[in-house]
């Protein structure tokens, strides 16, 4: 199967304290996740 090496993957831990991205291209998606977490507080 073909895998895109530039694909992004962002993960948020169970306690919603850490947001991490797979690579440098995940920065935008990680920022959106952080803003979503802040907005939901």
Automatic annotation (TrEMBL):
It comes from the Bacteria. This is Uncharacterized protein. The lineage of its organism: Bacteria, Pseudomonadati, Pseudomonadota, Gammaproteobacteria, Cellvibrionales.
